[in-house]
């Protein structure tokens, strides 16, 4: 269970992480606009979203969510591949969902820009 100070620090971390992600997302979107294909632009943005926004629940504290890239990297460095597999599973699920969203966006783009 988290005390009040820990909950506040947890909330501040996720708020700072979200703000930093939004700034990075818009910077990368401006950079990816240089690419000629809409599908490639949105694919790269989708990969960015999956890599940075996929969470995994901490095995130590219930209700404590960690960015999966951070958790998986830390556990792989420590050599605990079974714990890292949880994060990699979350990446797989998030990637499949994002692939579906990406395909639907390409269909929308094709229908609108005929």
How would you summarize what this structure contains?
The protein is mainly alpha-helical. Helix content is 77%, strand content 5%. It is built from four helices and two strands, in the order ααββαα.
Uncertain regions spanning at least 5 consecutive residues: none
Strand order of the largest sheet: 1-2
Q: Could you estimate the helical fraction of the residues in percent?
A: over 70%
Q: What's the average pLDDT?
A: 93
User: Based on helices, strands and strand pairing, what is the structural class?
Assistant: mainly alpha
> From the structure provided, what is the oligomeric state, counting identical versus distinct chains?
single chain
- The number of helices is 4
Order of helices and strands: HHEEHH
Strand element count: 2
Overall, the morphology is elongated
Q: C-alpha Rg, in Å?
A: 17 Å
Number of domains: 1
Keywords: Membrane, Transmembrane, Transmembrane helix
How would you characterize the overall build of this protein?
The chain is built from four helices and two strands, in the order ααββαα. The chain is 77% helix and 5% strand. The chain is mostly helical and 114 residues long. Strands 1-2 form a two-stranded antiparallel sheet. The chain has one domain (4-113).
